């Protein structure tokens, strides 16, 4: 029984959340606040990923002048695949992106990470701007 518990812990993925908020271990990131994306409406979900690259995009594209930060997080409740990315844009869930209506808890921070090139950032921001002009929200609830 103990061995199975150890195996399950070892198989547990690491989850990340990219933002510009300055947080510390133990802090909760909860829905109900202004979204960092789209029109900035009240967020019904908190988004996180099991890939560092998806979290880097989150940190780089979040609104605000603060530096991007990537936190290691743990969901406190159930979660589902992020429908904004899965099957609509990418078959399956290759970005391993998720959303939850429950808080996620910060357990650490990734202090060293490589951001995207200025060209990649510009291309993504231009793409998001075109979607906004078409009335398409980046985040769909």
UniProtKB/TrEMBL annotation:
Spans through the membrane: none
Cross-referenced InterPro entries: Arr_sf, Rifampin_Arr
A Pfam family it matches: Arr-ms
Domain Rifampin ADP-ribosyltransferase stretches: 15-113
Region of interest (Disordered), residue spans: 75-99
UniProt superkingdom: Bacteria
UniProt-listed NCBIfam families: rifampin_ARR
Name recorded for this polypeptide: NAD(+)--rifampin ADP-ribosyltransferase
Species of the source: Imperialibacter roseus
């Amino acid at each position: 029984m103990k061995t199975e518990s150890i195996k399950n812990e070892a198989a547990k993925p690491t989850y990340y959340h990219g933002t510009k908020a300055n947080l510390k271990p133990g802090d909760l990131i909860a829905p109900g606040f202004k979204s960092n994306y789209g029109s900035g409406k009240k967020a019904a979900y908190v988004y996180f990923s099991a890939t560092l690259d998806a979290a880097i995009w989150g940190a780089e594209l979040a609104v605000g002048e603060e530096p991007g930060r990537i936190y290691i997080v743990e969901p406190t409740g159930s979660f589902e695949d992020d429908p904004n990315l899965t099957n609509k844009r990418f078959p399956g869930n290759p970005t391993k992106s998720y959303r939850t209506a429950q808080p996620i808890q910060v357990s650490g921070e990734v202090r060293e990470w490589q951001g995207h090139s200025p060209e990649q950032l510009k291309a993504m921001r231009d793409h998001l701007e075109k979607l906004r002009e078409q009335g398409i929200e980046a985040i769909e609830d």
